[in-house]
Design goal:
alpha/beta; Aspartate Aminotransferase, domain 2; 14 helices; 11 strands; disordered N terminus
Length: 382
Amino acid sequence: MAPARRNFLRRLVCAGSTAALLQSPLLGLTPNPASFEPTRFDEPPGPIRLNSNENAYGPSSKAVAAMRAALAGTNRYPDLQYDALVDQIAKLHGVQREQLLLGCGSTEILRMAAVAFLGPGKRLIQASPTFEAMERYSRAAGAEVVSLPLTSTLAHDLEGMSQRLDENATLVYICNPNNPTGSLTPRADLELFIKKLPANTHVLIDEAYHHYAGRSERYQSFIDRPVDDDRVMVSRTFSQVYGLAGLRLGYAVGDPKVLQTMRSQATEQSVNGVVAQAAMAALEDADSVRDSVKRNSDDRQEFRNQAMVHMLKPIDSHANFFMMDTHHPAQEVIEHFQKNQVLIGRRFPAMDTHIRVSLGTPPEMLKFWQVWDMLHYSQMHM
């Protein structure tokens, strides 16, 4: 295969679901964008997917139309779209271009941070359980990983983390709301923790589920209300409220010098033109974002209602998933659901009897509870 064609195909890999869209004819056709609107309740054949904290309803119709329009330009490098997208996100958050860094999903942001600030002899400090990608990237960089259990309120143990801070602890990872628990670490506690950081310690606050958390005394984004500290970086993703998980796009907001250190570890042109156009359309569609947040709030309440009927008490969630204690081995429950064509979250060893359930569409959640009722201990008081 010619090198130019190989490189073109590599550029499409990060797009994920772009490959599926490319099955449609590209030349000379401009079908109604509505024909590309995802069918909200009819998933392709296969198991119901309640395992990856995805937006079950998909992207907005405006984002879908933008994707379709962008397909005809996939023969071009996405330089112009990249610049326009950075400008739009910077305007949204009231920051300068230099304070932004894009990545192929927020997971690439985590990878860049791990490679930039960790290495042999250095240490990552994080919670347990939390999103595992940062730990994997840190160990790959040769760093030590210290994981501290969540507190009794399922917040990050900031006091315990403070006790592990020294010249070797160069990166702290805070996922807030936390995955897999959906719980919050109070904003005031985080501010006090940040003030205690050694000069060479950076903290990455992962706000992947920010839109679902709402605003309260306990939770306020470090982008919307920043602190004057160049050691703090915040990551966001288009995978959740915007429904673009398959296209992979994330970004970080932080100090320009800090982000420049991370940028040196970035994959060149990791943001493809299709997702750039979709993201810009999604950012402009404020009504769709509000609808998605409201729908998620309604779905969360319905899950709580059903859990009460089934005598279950899930952890209070500030995201688009729930974690709940089954009082039985989690792997046993996971396999039961899998056998009945429903995928739920993986096992988390730190909470070995808990399962994580991503919120799906109403028919999908009906199926979830039907399969739950098939468990032989489903009617037991939890």
